[in-house]
Sequence to fold (332 residues):
Amino acid sequence: MVKIAIDAMGGDFGPEPIVKGCLQALKKKDFIPILVGKESEILPLLPKRYRDKILIVDTDDVISMSDAATDAVKRKESSIYKAVDLVKKGEADGIVSAGHSGATMTLATLRLGRLKGVSRPALVTLMPTKTGRRSVVLDVGANVDSKPEHLAEFAVMGGCYAEDLLKIKNPSIGILANGEEDSKGSEVTKAAHKLLLGYKGFKGNVEGSDIFNGSCDVITCDGFVGNLVLKASEGVASTISILIKDYIRKSPVSITGALLMRKVFKLLKKEIDYAEIGGAPLIGIKGCAIVSHGKSNAKAIENAIYQAINYVDTGVNEHIISRLEKLKQKEA
Fold:
């Protein structure tokens, strides 16, 4: 049975939503959760009937959001360090953390190591599209100075993720640029374009709108650019929701229509709500690490746990190693 280590202390709201999300996941999935954190705070949140189904690794130290990511490497008694170490020792198959994202990514990369053929891991996010199918965007924050070979690796890893986790056959892959023409983009994206020519599914450059129109399944970019895309998208979605509510409130005619549109609004909110996805996988490491939002509620943690279980079950890491080996052979 899959074992998932969960950093119980990392979120902005303490262990309560994390423990609650874990309990919700246990009701629907068979797995072994390992909650890592202050036992004195975790235990009172667990109903007695669940205490024999959940393991607790007690630790007092917690990496706060104000701490430097590199501090996590030295603080071996912290909840995130111990959670990652469980994966390293083979006592857990994956980790979920809503704590310091930099600390999680640093420890997962350094302690677990990179998959064969991976120069740098990448952070993955899923974006809604008008087709109803989500697009895969990476990197969205793990790297801010990517080289062409890194972008090429991200493209391959994203394609594997789309195939194995989203069940997309022959996913289309593109490089995010300021135009579809081969001549567009930076020197880095142009060089990455050349490396990917002839790779299965590669369609060349794509634009920002292609992330949402469903014309491309996997969009690869530098982590600096990807993070800007992610944050801007979250901001636009939030603003649109506020504007819609504001217009409805101001117009009596709209109120009647709003009652009819309530279901539509609920579906829209579900599409753009990060809690529905749960977190961003750090792809390219030995094992599985899901980086969740600091403000994650119980539903977000529940879905992050499902993500981790699915990631482990699909064997996507072996797929990545195999595909990258073929890419390297092509480059040689």
In short: DSSP finds 13 helices and eleven strands in the chain. The domain at 119-276 is CATH 3.40.718.10 (Isopropylmalate Dehydrogenase). The first strand starts at residue 3 and ends at 7. The chain has two domains: 1-117+284-314, 119-276.
